[in-house]
Amino acid sequence: MAKIVSYLRLKPLTLLQSFVALNVAYLVVVLTAIVFEFEWAERARQRFADHPAGTDWVLTAQIIAILLTVGAGLVLMAGLFYKLKLKQPLDLLMSASESISANDLEFRLSYDAKDEMGELCRAFEKMRGQLESNFKALWRSVEERNRLNAIFAHDLRTPLSIMKGYFELITTYLPQKRMSEEKLLDTLRTMETHIGRMERYVEAMNSIQKLEDRPVVRRETDADGLIARLDDGARRMAERHGKTYDSSKAADTATVDVDPDLVMQVFDNMIANGTRYATGQVNVDYEVRDGLLSITVADDGPGFSAEELQKAVLPFYRGDVPDASGRQGLGLYVCKVLCDKHGGCLAVANRAGGGGNVTASFRVRVDQ
Fold it and tell me: What membrane topology was assigned to this protein in its record (predicted)?
């Protein structure tokens, strides 16, 4: 019964098929009505044949009746076509347009007809979904940029305050000749150190901007070959730092579609951190499964503190490392940004037996 009602509502038909079907129905109804009108006119002529006024008025009445029938049929057909095929999807599209104009993308556009209006609604829903995805990505980017700027401003405040203090010291005591030449040179060298520190901050900010603009260039790559290159570099770095190295791999596909340079850049940062904090052992696990390339670097060092687990991937975060060490605290942040760009993520954790774990994942289009 539901299928019959659906068919009568013309949902399975295209707009052209629906228009033709309604026209056929319209012609059948109108021609049937005209036949009855002819029969009525004939009976009227016979009935009023002997009437003094004659039967000329019958023809006029018949013509008017036919015109009214044709006109009423056209109006009825157009109304049915609009109500059955156009009204609901147009209302849905109008409501969706108003929601988008109000920056509200938290809705779903659903219209299950198989005609052109159904295709239009599905295309509109696809566009809405893409807009929502782009809007969320843009919002995350803006939030990340604001957070980065806040961190950058906070980290610059300390060297600027120190520079201001030294400047006031010099301008106060040097004119009075109360500052020795040795003290002046020592102060200037300290100021030079903090100037270099601020220059490194500015360079780091520029590198982050370039990082966010970096495109992802995917190409089909042999999974074993890529893992072998990564493994060889990691082994050499571990040996250079006097650490032992071990690795394992598991792959459910022979090839992966990735950006090898991006993967290697992330891995270089991860293995550098691992060898820096390891006491004597570094382990790397490579896995390709369910469309993801995952790389886990584990060390036997002190692991992450509770604060580091929350902040390790933030830009300019150095933990307990002194500011003047020359490190900007960007290694894991760079990894996080590049993993996000490649459709994956970066996760930090502590090993059950002690030490830290850093796992980078990359979304790959696998060729089964």
Answer: Multi-pass membrane protein
Q: Is the model's pTM score more than 0.90?
A: no
Secondary structure class of 216 (helix, strand, coil)? coil
CATH number at 260 reads 3.30.565.10
What CA–CA distance (Å, rounded) separates 147 from 227? 35
Cα gap 18→11, rounded to integer Å: 9
Task: Please tell me the distance from the alpha carbon of residue 204 to that of residue 328, in angstroms, as a whole number.
Answer: 7
Q: Domain total for the chain?
A: 3
The secondary element (H helix, E strand) that includes residue 349 is strand 345-350
Concatenated DSSP letters of 122-171: HHHHHHHHHHHHHHHHHHHHHHHHHHHHHHHHHHHHHHHHHHHHHHHHHH
- 274/235 Cα distance (integer angstroms): 12
Q: What are phi and psi of 248, to 5 degrees?
A: -145, 155
Q: Residue 183 burial (CB < 10 Å; 0-12/13-18/19+)? A: middle
Report the sign of the C-alpha dihedral through residues 230, 223, 264, 295, in that order. Answer: negative
Q: Which residue, of 55, 86, 104, is where some domain finishes?
A: 104
Q: Are 223 and 367 contacting, i.e. CB atoms less than 8 angstroms apart?
A: no
